[in-house]
Structures are given as C-alpha cells and as structure tokens.
Amino acid sequence: MAAEMEAIEELKKRQVKSPLGGEKVYKDECAFSFDNPESPDGLYICMNTFLGLGKRYLQQYFEKTGHGVFLNIRRLRKEIPKDETLAAEKPSKLAIGVEGGFQTDEKRFEFEERASIVVLPQWFEIPYPSDGIPDQVQLSATMIMMAEDAAKQEEAAAMAGTWEGEKLRISKHAENLQQLSTGKKIPPSGWRCERCDLTTNLWLNLTDGSILCGRRFFDGSGGNNHAMEHYQQVKYPLAVKLGTITATSGDVFSYDEDDMVEDPYLAKHLAHFGINVAALEKTDKTMTELEIDINQKIGEWDVIQEAGSQLKPLYGPGYTGIRNLGNSCYMNSVLQVLFNIPDFQKRYFSVADKIVLNAPANPVADFNTQMTKLAFGLLSGEYSKNRYAQFKKKNWIINYPPSGIRPQMFKTLVGKGHPEFSTKKQQDAQEFFLHLVSLVEKNSRGSANACDCFRFQVEERVMCTATKKVRYSRREDYCLSLSVPMEAAINKEEVRKYHEQKAQAPSGLVDPKTIVRPIIPLFECLNVFQEAELVENFYSSAIRGKTAALKTTRLSTFPDYLMIQLRKFTIGDDWVPRKLDVSIQVPDELDLMALRGKGLQAEEEELPSGDSAAEPVVNICEATVTQLVDMGFPFDACRRAVYHTKSSGVEAATNWLMEHIDDSDFAAPFKPPQTREAQSPKAAFEPNQAGLALLMSIGFTSDQALKALKATDNNAERAVDWILSHADEIQEPMETETEAAASASRFRDGSEKYKLVAFISHMGTSTSVGHYVCHVLKDGHWVIYNDEKVALSEHPPKDLAYLYLYQRV
C-alpha cells in the first residue's frame, strides 16, 4: 500500500495530456516493434504523445523525450472450445485472409483488457482504475481507452470510396428484356431440369421461364449443358441460377455477352414468373463459390502452396511470417525476399537496437523507422517461437508470441496517396517491388541505399537502317522484364493433344491431374530480349527525316542481385487481361555473358546529335494514360503509347500497346525525347551556381540539376522535390566517356554468373485476384513463406514463378 501511495504522489508531479482534440492514439501496436496488447508485457501508450511502445523501448523513449507516464494495456485471451464455435463458412472470394476468402486455421478467442499506469524512471505501476489517481491522469487514461486506434482510422480513410473485387457490368439486355407470356409460375422449391431431371446447378431462363441444368465440370459435377443448348436453339440471352437468388442479388449469366452480368431489374423479371425475391433464401453455390472450388482442385493453387506435403514449420530469426492484411500477400512476399538480402539487413536490422534514438518526432510516418521496425520483426525471432507461454489466471492466458507480424502501419504508410497500394485490392508484386525501391531511394539521401544491390544500367543501341549510323543511350533499372515466347514451347505436340481433349470436354474443364502446360526454357525468354527490334518511323538526325531503325538492348552493368520478371500477364485478343499458364525451365545457375553491352565500337559511326528539333513536341495526355492504366496496362507502357500516338486518343494508344506488347522495353521507365532546347539547357538558362553545386553534391547529375533549377526558378530546395517527382521525364543526354565512367560508378558491376536464391509465385487468373507465395533459399534449403506460415519446402515450384531473384556468384 505504501508503494502505491508513493507512486500516486510521484504521479501528481507529472504532466499528461488527453486526446480531446482529435489527436491520433496508437494503442494497438508499438511504433518501433510489433509488440501489442497481447504481448507478455502488453503495450505502453505515452500519455503525452499517445504513441504505443513495447516495454523494451520505454527507457530509450524516456531518455530521449522526457515523457515518463504510460498507460499499460494488456489484452488477455481465452480460447473458445470448438463446440462453442460457429461452423466455418465456405470461402466466397478468390483471396486469402479477407472476409469471404480462404481463412487461416487460427483458433477462436475471446478477450479481456486490463490496464495500469506506469511511471518512469522508478517503474511505479498503479492499477487502473484506482482511488487517488489525479483527475487529469484519470481523464487521459479514460480518453485513450475510448479512442479508436489511429492505424485503424488511417486504414478506413484509405479505403473510403474504394471497392473490392471486379464489379459486374450491367447486361445490355436487362432494360428491354423480352419476357414471354407462357403462363409459367415457378414454385419456391422442388426444381428439376426439364430435360434430364437433375435437381442441382439449375438455371431459370428469364425470357420463357424454362428451368435447365448448367455445364458439366471435369469431376462429373455440374450439369449436362441443357441450359446452353436451349440458348443455342432460341437465343434467349439471360438466365439466373436458382438457389442463389436473395432479396438483394442473384447470379445472372448472359449467353450473348458470355459473362456473368448484373440485372438491375431482376426482381421485376422474376415477378413475371410469380417469384417473390423477398421470400427467397440462398440455397445453392454462387458461380464465384464454384470457381473457388475448382481453383482449389486445379491449376497452380495446390502446386505452389505445396498442398498435400507435410511441411515442417520453421521458427526463429529469419523465419517470421507476415499476417495477411486483406489481399496484402503481394507485399508480404516482396518483403520476405528483400529482408533475406544482406544489404537490407545491414541497412535496417543493424540499427534496430537504436531505433528510438534515431527516430524523428513522428516515427509512425517515417519510412526508415518503419523499415527498421520491419527488419526487427522479421529477423529478430521475437515473433516466431514454437511455444505458448501461458500466464494463467482464472483460465485466461496470453498468447505468446503472436503468429507472425502484422505490418499495418507500414502498409498504410507506403500506400498513402497511391491510387492502388492504398486500397485492399490485390496488386502486382513486381509493381510493388518497384514502388518500394523508389521509396527506399527517396529516403536514402545521405545514408546507405539498400537498393543499390538491384540497380543496373541498360544499354540501348539504335541503328539507322538508311545510314548504318548508331546512337547509344543508357538508363537505369531494377528489374529485368522478359517476354514469354509461347511459340518456343518444347512440348507443342503434348499441349496440342491436351487442348483437343479439353475442347471435347462438355464444360471445357479436364481432370487437374492431366493438365499439360507449355514448357519454355528461360534462355528462350532471354533470346527474345536480345533480338533486334524494328523501329518504324524513326527520326534519323543523319538524313533529317523518317526511316526505320533497329534497336538492341543489353546490360552495361550486372548487379549483385538480379530481379527477373516473366511477363505472364498479358492482354488477350478480346482485350481482357489474362495470365499465361506456362511452365518455365529455370536453371539454378545462370550465365548472362551474352547480355553484356560493349558500347560504341571503333568501326561504328554515331548519329549526329542536336538535330531533333524538327520533331514536334508531344504533350502526353494524362487523362488518356489513366484510362489505359485502368484497362490493366503498365503505367510506363501507357505513357509510351500515348507519346508515340501523339495523344490522339485511347483507341490509337490501345492499338499501339497491342502491337508492341512484346517489346523488350514495353513496361520500362519511359523518358520522352526532348527538344534541342531541352537537351541544351545551358544555352537558354543561367543557373544559380550555388544551387547547382548543392544539387550535384547530393548525387544529381548536372543536366538533372539544370532542368530542375530552370523549372523551379532557381530554387534549390524546390528543385530536389521536382527531380524526385519528374524522374521519368528527365532524359539523360549522350554521355561522354568521362561522364559514362562517373555514371557507371553508381552501379555495382561484376561477374555475369548468378545462382537462384528466391522466387515469388502468383496463383490466379489475373493480378487482381488470387494469392502470392514466395520461396527463399536459406542455408542450402528452400523455405516457403505463405503469409504467416513459414516452413521447409519439399517441392519448390520453380517453374511456375512470376519473379525470380538471382545472386551473383
């Protein structure tokens, strides 16, 4: 009692604040680690800044800020016995870890929260609530307990106005659908196919009221195709699946549009046959649920996740899983690969013990702090231990440790302001990798850049076919993107027979055990990259006119780690994005000597420079770019298409994209050619010499600095932001030998020989659905990272991956 009185007296001397003015309260997760209220010591919330902290960081925080009063929240959990849990619902979405998607096998718990006031440096602890606690402290604690966690608020704000999944289009037949007066009245149950007496997978034609069965699937389920045969005879376009109709929805298929559609007048169309939708309940699987059932049986899902194997779980440093934050598997896979690279470990994990002392006033919004937090979470082993430490009291326990980390703060931070990564929709792993690279670059000024290990220089050689003169240009990149030449498959005959068998199947599906994918060696993809590309309507400064040119692409430098993307996602002839279902023969060791660029040769003559002023300036229409991106094309490819079609509209740009989708630089960063004035800024603009020297001292080239100073009226501070936000628009001029040598110093170069050390695989038909998993080679063994599950891999599916990481040997 005396100790508590002493603590209260000390507490009366301290100043605290209350979150009464909309201040953000971080009470669900530590700002510097992944400790949370369920951790053994709970979470400590500073009663002045409202930041959450794990116990290991309290002393550092107190020494840095002087704030020493904390509200400690401990969340105790109790497992709910299995016989009290609700029956698990079947998944209804092609996603993992989101509502309606595939769920993990976690146990169910109920929770109880307990709180106390902690005062440093004495480490006094006072139960809350308690008599004698000063009123201002009582108010602060009460308001903190009542406040909604700031991370949850930010996530909700980011999600505002977004939707998840693909929205169905309204059928063109819905508004004026023909409905015949057949006198049919459909009963509320007891349905049968009118041709074969099946009682499942039944479809009601909304024109004549016929009830017929759907398509037969490879496993014998489904129907006998009678609904499709009926449409072929009568051409009545819309049908609804019986058993899926509720007061608000129902599965409607348009045979004419060959797709699932929305029928806004469904209730009226059903009422024509005496059906009252308000009285109906769902009794059958929707088409989405059926699609998920099929995807669980066929394709890549089982293979990539190594389903059926008794995978041995792994625990400890470097074997920590990442919770799926609603379709965040693309982010999880990229992070697991990056933090297994020494450059990232050295940059972020080596300073984790001083994370508080190095952090700015707002660590939650600081990229480097959150990266260090990730490094500690993944590499320390604190959140990957194969045991439960049970602190029992009246059957309540603390689950120690949490199952993997939950990087909600990081996801909110890196997605802030981004039209895609700020949503809960699934994104492309390669695009997220490049987005993360740009953030690392931006936040590495004056310190080590962990992404230096990926950076390489690309050499592009263009030869004018009329004069044989050449021009060399160089650009930097972080990912080698390769086309997949389907014509190079080495098992064409087997594939042909398989597709014949598939076409003969009533539903177009076959037994998954018999699936035959085209097998394409990786070196064929590399051969396509090396081939010369014909460039039509090339403006040749040698003849001052248009001609054709041949462009070849090589690598000037070879990085320590080479990320290779196989462009499996493409656009079909029907303009619908689709994924190539192929098997790639990927070697464990790779020799890329043939890709080494050699630069200007003694026998070559350069194209004259400075004569491109005859070319008209093209202003890229950003509205057109946005429309093309929404269609599923890469951002840089869209800008390239709009430029080359002179901003003449979506149709022209789309045609250009379809014609050039296999170009080696299709999705490479696009830098529009500049006019002669832009290429010679010194003649038209006198820069502030002090500002020029400052920009060059922090790593920008003279031309970048000149363009930025010109665009910002010689304001050096604004010029830095201008360069970072206009990186894709800055065209580097032809380098002199001295400049080329200086530029090359930014790139690590060495042997062209590599070994495979990681790969990221995607399951699903497009980037907007499915799931990502990664495999990493550690200590001579392959390890699978499937969100929070980490295990020793038995059959790493190297042939089905999307991104491959090679390390120089």
From TrEMBL:
Domain UBA: start-end pairs: 619-660, 686-726
Recorded catalytic activity of this chain's protein: Thiol-dependent hydrolysis of ester, thioester, amide, peptide and isopeptide bonds formed by the C-terminal Gly of ubiquitin (a 76-residue protein attached to proteins as an intracellular targeting signal)
Entry binding sites for Zn(2+): 193, 196, 213, 226
Pfam families xrefs: UBA, UCH, zf-UBP, zf-UBP_var
UniProt domain USP: residue ranges: 320-809
CDD domains linked to this entry: Peptidase_C19B, UBA1_UBP5_like, UBA2_UBP5
Lineage: Eukaryota, Metazoa, Spiralia, Lophotrochozoa, Mollusca
Active site: 329, 771
GO molecular function: cysteine-type deubiquitinase activity; zinc ion binding
InterPro entries in the cross-refs: Papain-like_cys_pep_sf (IPR038765), Peptidase_C19_UCH (IPR001394), Ub_carboxyl-term_hydrolase (IPR050185), UBA (IPR015940), UBA-like_sf (IPR009060), Ubiquitinyl_hydrolase (IPR016652), UBP13_Znf-UBP_var (IPR041432), USP (IPR028889)
The name this protein goes by in its record: Ubiquitin carboxyl-terminal hydrolase
SMART domains found in the cross-reference section: UBA (SM00165), ZnF_UBP (SM00290)
Annotated ranges, domain UBP-type: 169-277
Family per similarity comment: Belongs to the peptidase C19 family.
Protein's GO biological process: protein deubiquitination; proteolysis
Enzyme class at the top of the EC tree: hydrolase
Alphabetic keyword roster: Hydrolase, Metal-binding, Protease, Repeat, Thiol protease, Ubl conjugation pathway, Zinc, Zinc-finger
EC number(s) on file: 3.4.19.12
